[in-house]
Write a structure and sequence with these properties.
Layout lengths: L7 E7 L4 H8 L3 E11 L13 E6 L7 H12 L4 E4 L13 H29 L2 E6 L12 H20 L5 E8 L2 E2 L13 E2 H13 L4 E4 L3 H9 L3 H7 L1
Parallel strand pairs: 1-2, 1-4, 2-3, 4-5, 5-6, 6-9, 7-8
Helix pairs in contact: 1-5, 2-3, 3-4
């Protein structure tokens, strides 16, 4: 539970290699020697700079049916977590090469598997009667585009589920936040042509920290994308395809 100074004590990051999630940790208030659990495949802590915190890397594969929920449940049964960040994600091969197998992996990682984890986290949080959950969605979830509609569809499903859980957990002491980043310079997007309003992972982490600190249930990263996507939502298909 948050202490009197509203500092986090135990933080769980599912998708522990996420640059946005790591930068978020750098920008929130955590008690000295607070524990940060990083779940992901073969996490190397040497390059992770989180001063004054105890970093606990745990090998975790969200595609593993046994680990997926079982490991998270085990960790949450052993201690209360003040913040859980769901940052696991898969963009697919770049440039986009759509095949049934690749599309299935994108949908599974970003929606099916992540949804199962999120439901389990929400249930555990409900039992402890407090905590914050940040779900990393995407502006790609707002409207289909020719270049990434499978990725967008998978994120739209997760986004919708997270917003539904916001309603379901109302009054329980548990808060769920949905962040919708645009193009973020990261390992995932390396080699891709940046979209307008692209930002660094460091800036994205700062904005996510501000979002949960100010209890913004849904926020865009950066904030200007809220207004950009209002326009994009209603663009004629022909115009959207030309921009794409």
């Amino acid at each position: 539970m948050l202490n009197g100074l509203k500092q986090f004590q135990n933080v769980l990051v599912i998708g522990g290699k996420s640059g946005i999630a790591l930068e978020l940790i750098n920008n929130i208030s955590i008690v000295p020697n607070g524990k940060v659990f990083l779940l992901g495949r073969k996490i190397e802590t040497q390059g992770i700079i989180l001063p004054g915190l105890e970093i606990i890397p745990i090998n975790y594969d969200i595609s593993d049916s046994i680990q997926r929920v079982g490991l998270v449940n085990q960790l949450m049964a052993e201690r209360d977590f003040d913040l859980v960040v769901l940052a696991a994600g898969y963009l697919g091969e770049q440039p986009i090469r759509s095949t049934p197998a690749l599309d299935r992996e994108i949908i599974n990682v970003n929606f099916s598997y992540s949804a199962e984890v999120l439901e389990g986290v929400a249930q555990r949080m409900r039992m402890q009667k407090h905590g914050k959950v940040l779900v990393l969605s995407s502006v790609a979830s707002i409207r289909p585009r020719k270049s990434n509609y499978v990725y967008g569809a998978s994120k739209a499903g997760l986004d919708f589920l997270a917003r539904g859980l916001q309603l379901d957990l109302e009054g329980t002491g548990v808060e769920i936040y949905v962040a919708r980043p645009g193009f973020v310079h990261s390992k995932m997007t390396r080699g891709m042509t940046p979209a307008p309003f692209a930002i660094t992972a460091a800036r994205a982490g700062q904005l996510c920290a501000i979002g949960i600190t100010k209890s913004k249930r849904i926020f865009y990263v950066p904030g200007i994308l809220r207004y950009v996507m209002l326009v994009v939502r209603y663009l004629p298909v022909k115009v959207l395809n030309k921009l794409n």
